[in-house]
């Protein structure tokens, strides 16, 4: 679970037994923590305790499947193959959808902003490790860094070490001052080494 907590953007398929022998936590506790910490996760219980299936709903774990070991090896293997296929299709759909949203995490909660509403993301001077997201509904501050977001969102452009902008929301660009004006009137600086790329991004967006 330490690995999961350290990577909230991780996407995974987890096979758990409700009864985890010699473990400090049972499968339900682990599943609950996975749900709290990950934005996208599929959970499959493989167990002999069919009578405990209702607990997964009571705790809002929302498992993909509940596979009974008593059904035999072949049946279990088929169920697991089917579950892997379903999880893969859901993940592919999730990827398509996630490109249309900007997500961020505060505590254990994950929020989403439509990409069409996002203007830019910026570092906060004097507050290393914190960034602010500017969108049509306001500004949100949370712990994060632009390097990770630049890698995650290929449709955004890093015009400066302090700014990650949404090219689709650019109003205009002043080449002389190297300032890009966003559709809300705010301005973001463009570094000298990104100036050439900035022009190309604007031309591509205008097509």
TrEMBL record:
Recall the taxonomic lineage recorded for the source organism: Bacteria, Bacillati, Bacillota, Bacilli, Lactobacillales
4-aspartylphosphate is carried by which residues?
Answer: 17
Q: Which Pfam families match?
A: LytTR
Q: Which residues form the HTH LytTR-type domain?
A: 102-204
Print the keywords alphabetically.
Answer: Activator, Cytoplasm, Phosphoprotein, Two-component regulatory system
Entry function: Required for high-level post-exponential phase expression of a series of secreted proteins.
- Give the GO molecular function terms: DNA binding; phosphorelay response regulator activity
Protein name, please?
SppR protein
Response regulatory domain residues: 1-84
